[in-house]
Write a structure and sequence with these properties.
716 residues; alpha+beta; Beta-Lactamase; Heat Shock Protein 90; elongated
């Protein structure tokens, strides 16, 4: 063999050895990338699942915090207001029980549970847990002995003016959390579960492990790995499954603000297969194996083959590096997109299913999707709700007398212009009964499709309560008006009695003639007409308006003054009305109900003046002033009295239901509450009260309406 040939073979051998080294290093790097990709994929899956759990826990805590804040505003006690709030929280959060443990050891239970003798809340674990952390948190899961279900107790400390008064706790069944975790798909045979810092299994597909076993007991190979959970809130570990001996990958993430860890586990073979389907790195690995074989053949083969392989390897190495960089960028983008999509889908699905309002999605007018609250609210199976439309759930006419069909077309027309709609609507349940609701409607355009999103909240209980309050207020006003009618009639009856008595005297004195009879009948008829007119005025007062209409505010004020005229005259109170304009001041609403508002305010002003007269020995000004102002697009009405005023600490309470400064027999405490509802809710105005240097002043601000009626100010 010539020296040239030997040199050539040596050169080829060195080159082949170098190629094999490069292939080996590249192959190892590819293996490391594959392992990192597998770990990242498992961590992304675990993080997505943990966010669902965190969202569920945060929602439950927010409901508990909102209930605690509402109860503290009303006053904590074993009373109907506190119990009603606890029961409302049970319904809102689907809690099995909501209760309060006071510092005295007494329990206030929303579910009506009666504690056994000697029961002391201060020694209960849930009470101690809230006292220890001093913020909203929850206890370890436990099996409820009554329902045999897995539950936790959410707890929060209660403070009033910085003073600790007790602990509020809510028991919630973990069925929703368990159901969500059991639905998680991790490869073909993988699954998700939850443990605490000590490894105790809290949620697991195998119910025999829950609260009975620790993870290190079911998988001894993980005994030395649990320390990683306490040192890091996110990571992966590899272990050999105790049952089948296969290598597995366990990914874990600490659930925010808890000592729980959400874990996913999957066989390494399946994780490798998932990665193979989503990345081209496996193909690169196989190519490198083939390349190594070729390099080995080249080492044994001829000089020509070695030279060709060397050149090919250089080119291939450059191409692989370029593709590797491209694949790394594509893989990162793909993982980010998948993570964001799962995060959005998980959040949407959770909020959609657990929302307390009915949520329906329609294409055109036909519903194509709905949540469980919609099924519960309308009483139809979900399969029937899908395919129906808003008119199928509506009566032919709405309470304002307008057709549901026409109103729906108008709402959709405005919504198509891009404006979100909020309105009240009357719906039908499956049993034919009607209920009032608040509706939010928005038209969206997704993936070149036009969809309508509707959110419906049942307000029938609130509407019925307001109707009962309004009726009670009207009955209270009726009592006062009957007294006013009696006072109005007293003088005409006395006059008629005098006329009748004069007949006897005229008869005995032979003075009954045509002129006497004519005068007597004319004046008697005048008195009777006055009494009849009084009845008509009060009858109109008690007749409710059937629908909202434009009306002149001055005409309403004059009607209220006429109804109160006799009572004010009896109390020797002057009434002055001042206007700053001669044009009609037209507003939109229920005229009869607005007259009720003015009568109630005037009656309160009269009582305030009477109270001041009884309290002071000096002479006082017995006067009520009504000042009507036109200000831009608003009408402002000031009703000022010269009475005793409103105590400053009660100014914020005068519009509360059942609050009154009068004696129990004098007032029901619902007049001003209903007045505020009529002005602010039904007429889009503002009703407020303040003290002046002479007494109290009530101010009503209403938006002007188009003057569609022939309102005249003459004689007002």
């Amino acid at each position: 063999m010539s020296l040239k040939t030997k040199n050539t073979l040596i050169t080829m051998a060195v080159l082949s050895a170098l190629i094999l080294s490069v292939v080996g290093i590249t192959y190892r790097s590819t293996q490391a990338i594959i392992e990192k990709t597998i770990d990242d994929h498992q961590l992304a899956t675990t993080t997505d699942v943990s966010k669902t759990t965190e969202l569920w826990l945060n929602q439950q805590m927010k409901i508990l915090d909102a209930t605690a804040a509402s109860i503290l505003l009303r006053g904590v006690g074993n009373n109907s207001e506190t119990l009603d709030m606890l029961k409302m929280a049970m319904r809102a959060g689907h809690f099995s029980d909501v209760y309060i443990g006071l510092t005295s050891g007494v329990i206030i239970d929303g579910a009506g549970w009666t504690p056994p003798p000697g029961y002391d809340t201060r020694v209960r674990p849930w009470y101690k847990r809230a006292v220890e952390v001093q913020h909203t948190t929850f206890t370890r899961p436990y099996i409820d002995l009554t329902t045999m279900e897995l539950v936790i107790a959410l707890v929060t400390p209660l403070h009033v003016d910085g003073r600790f008064i007790g602990v509020m706790s809510a028991d919630t069944v973990l069925d929703t959390l368990v159901e969500n975790l059991m639905s998680v798909k991790v490869g073909e045979s993988g699954y998700a579960f939850i443990i605490d810092e000590e490894g105790t299994i809290l949620v697991h597909p195998n119910q025999e492990f829950v609260m009975k076993m620790k993870l290190q007991e079911t998988q001894p190979s993980l005994s030395h790995e649990l320390g990683k959970l306490q040192q890091s809130s996110l990571g992966t570990v590899a272990y050999r499954d105790q049952g089948n001996g296969r290598e597995n990958i366990l990914a874990y993430k600490r659930i925010t603000n808890t000592d729980w860890f959400l874990c996913t586990t999957i066989p390494s073979v399946e994780a490798y297969e998932l990665t193979r389907k989503t990345t081209a790195l496996i193909a690169v690995e196989k190519v490198l194996v083939v390349l190594g074989v070729l390099a080995l053949l080249t080492l044994v083969g001829g000089v020509g083959s070695g030279l060709v392989l060397f050149v090919f390897n250089r080119r291939f190495e450059s191409t692989v590096q370029q593709h590797k960089q491209e694949l790394t960028g594509i893989s990162e983008d793909l993982q980010w997109n998948i993570s964001k999509r799962k995060e959005v889908e998980t959040s949407y699905q959770t909020l959609f299913l657990v929302a307390n309002d009915a949520i329906l999605l329609s294409k055109g007018l036909q519903y194509v999707e709905c949540n469980e609250k919609a099924v519960e609210m309308f009483g139809f199976p979900r399969s029937e709700v899908i395919g129906m439309n808003m008119l199928d759930f509506s009566p032919e006419f709405q309470p304002n007398g307008r057709e549901s069909l026409g109103m729906t077309k108008k709402i959709i027309e405005i919504a198509n212009a891009g404006e979100q709609q909020f309105f009240e609507w009357t719906f039908l349940r499956s049993n034919g009964t009607e209920f009032a609701a608040e509706v939010g409607l928005k038209i969206l355009r997704l993936d070149n499709q036009e969809l309508t999103l509707s959110s419906i909240r049942d307000i029938s209980k609130r509407v019925n309560a307001e109707k009962q309050l309004r009726q009670a207020q009207k009955m209270a006003a009726m009592g006062e008006m009957l007294g006013a009618i009696a006072h109005q009639w007293r003088q005409p009856l006395n006059t008629l009695s005098t006329y009748i008595a004069s007949l006897q005297a005229a008869y005995h004195n032979d003075k009954i003639n045509k002129d006497f009879v004519q005068k007597l009948t004319t004046e008697a008829d005048s008195q009777i007409q006055f009494m009849s007119k009084t009845i008509d005025d009060f009858r109109h007062f008690f007749r409710p308006s059937k629908s909202k209409l434009p009306f002149d505010i001055v005409e309403a004020i004059n009607s209220a003054v006429k109804l109160m005229q006799a009572q004010l005259k009896q109390s020797e109170i002057d009434l002055k009305i001042k206007y700053n304009t001669r044009e009609p001041l037209v507003v939109y609403g229920y005229q009869s109900e607005f007259v009720h508002v003015l009568v109630n305010i005037l009656a309160n002003a009269r009582d305030a003046i009477e109270d001041r007269f009884l309290q002071e020995t000096r002479e006082i000004l017995r006067l009520i002033e009504i000042d009507v102002v036109s200000h831009g697009s608003e009408v402002i009405i000031h009703v000022k009295d010269y009475g005793c005023g409103i105590p400053d600490h009660l100014l914020t309470k005068v519009f509360d239901p059942y609050f009154t400064t009068k004696a129990t027999l004098s007032g029901a405490g619902i007049g001003l509450y209903m007045a505020k509802i009529i002005v602010e809710k039904e007429m889009n105005g503002v009703l407020s009260a303040k003290n002046t240097n002479v007494g109290a002043q009530f101010t009503i601000i209403l938006p002007k309406s188009e003057p569609t009626l022939n309102a005249s100010r003459e004689g007002a």
